[in-house]
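just leaving the lab so this will be short. what follows is a protein written twice so to speak, once as letters and once as structure tokens for the fold. can you read through it and tell me how you think this chain folds. anything you notice is useful, everything is just below:
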Amino acid sequence: MITEQEINNIINLMFEGIGDNKLNVRKEPITPERIYNGVTLYHRPKDATVTVGGKTMKVIDSIFTYGFNREFTSSNGGNMYGPGVYTVYNLRSSNEKAKGYGSAIIKLKLLNGYQDFLIFSEQIAQKVYGKNWRIEDQVNKIFPHNVANRILHQIYLIMHDDTCSFKDMAKSSESAYKIVTLLGEAGMNDSKCRGIVYNGGHDGGCCFIRDFSSVVPIEVSYDNGRTWKNRLNQNLINWINSEVDTHFQFDSNKEFKEVSKKAINGFTMVWNKNGKVNYIPVNSNEPISNVWFDDGSNWENKNGVLYAVVEYAGNTLNITYEDNQYMVYTEFWEPLDCTVEELPDLING
């Protein structure tokens, strides 16, 4: 069982390198009062199942058991702006733009509100940032000076007005996406940006939350928000209080702790501070190799074969565990006769 001191040590590691005003929602225990004082948002997960800790359950049930966890949600959420929780801030967006998502709506609370979010909605920005609500002011507040100058000089920033119809509302998602692609995951991690509020061409009024630790699911609806069932419970609160986001935890000189509880099909997907992907096997504190991937999926089990799809140096590859080694195949399952450790030599040779 992980001790309180170990949790505090992990939290200290998690806060390293994220910005001057650290993501600090975990410095105070999460209580029902803090939860219900948070901003209300909505999330439609896919109607799918996921295997966690050796148990197969619906995505809905996993969220109300483990919260919005980077590993548990990565296979069932968007990734256009990077790893995060993709939500909308009104039911109109959730219902009118629901095609392609699941049948259930999760109501959640965002702890600490929209502070340190980049907000492209005029109305929300004015409430959060007062007289300094304009997007230029926000960029200068959230990003380091040199990065803010790059954004302001290279990107045409568009805000939207929530009082407009979907048809007339400006697509501020274009500005949000250009910022994310300009900076990359490492650049975003060097800022104070906890997330982005924008208007998407498909989803309407959206809130992308980078900071998994500040999202708490509270209720679920199966009739488009007409009725709600409360599923917040003390076990979930206790889990969230003891949970950490491995995205901000890894450092080359430090080990992961207690990751086996997050394993999907025997492996936990983790990220380093440069946004690179690796995997921690159950009952281990170390990645499967010293090679980190540009992107990757959770491990899947197809006809008894465990594998993960990864991106490396512009190549889509499959990796499997065979004869105590992690072997590499092409996208079309042609053997490359090399291990993951030998991959850089193969690609660069």
